[in-house]
Amino acid sequence: MKRFDYLTPVGFMLGMLILTVGVISGAGLSGFYSFIDVTSFFIVTGGLFAAVFMSFSPKDLKKAPAVLKQVFVSEDDDIRDLVKTFVILSEQARKQGILSLDANIGEMKDPFLKKGLLLAIDGWDEETIRNVMNSEIAAMEERHRKGRRIFEKAGEFAPAWGMIGTLVGLVMMLKNLNKPETLGPNMAVALLTTLYGSLLSNMLFIPIAAKLEEKTEAEIFKKQVMIEGIIGVQSGRNPRNLESQLVVFSSKEEWRKKQAENVKGKAHEA
């Protein structure tokens, strides 16, 4: 079930609150306004958006709002419930035959699970099912990577444009050394662009990219559990044995350990 992920806005607001309190406690309320500069903000954001627009296609950029929306959505994935589903399917397949699962397909809400079961019902062998499903995961991971890359690149561009703004401010300051009244504003532009670039990168874009990556890992993990469950049902494995095997996946740490062991095993065989 999908629900609002409150940690995303809470984390952002907490970071801004700590920053604001730190500035006010050091410079006072009047000094806080000296950290607001429209010129610096436009140099950083204008350069940032220009760089992003040049780096990606219109098709990729149109998907950015939908990708960003995922940061505010959390989905409860109880692996134990998924394990119970496969135990029930396994019992049915052993008693009534795997073709009897065709009646359950309409109840499946997850397209990935539905596709895997259809392959099993159609009589495809274990290797084919695994290859097809893993290809689906690889395609999904690539789609997610492309959507996440916009925010990763924005996190790289923001500090760079902050430094460019700093150079602009320093040039303006050095060209007007004979005008003392301009030194302060030009120095403010020079320093605040760096500040704004770092803030946008480390408080917005990089955390968003990290959250998206974590969601992708969680989805891959869930789909890997489905693959093992589908293979277990297709091969006619004993429901209790299948449950014991899949319960290992209730812990992501155990799953990662199992994956690492498989990789080491393949490397040893090679």
Automatic annotation (TrEMBL):
InterPro entries: Flag_MotA_CS (IPR000540), MotA-like (IPR047055), MotA_ExbB_proton_chnl (IPR002898). It comes from the Bacteria. It is found in: Cell membrane. Belongs to the MotA family. GO terms for biological process: bacterial-type flagellum-dependent swarming motility; chemotaxis. The chain crosses the membrane at residues 12-32, 38-56, 154-174, 186-206. Residues 107-221 form the MotA/TolQ/ExbB proton channel domain. Keywords: Cell membrane, Cell projection, Cilium, Flagellum, Membrane, Transmembrane, Transmembrane helix, Transport. This is Flagellar motor protein MotP. One of its GO terms (cellular component) is plasma membrane. It is a multi-pass membrane protein.
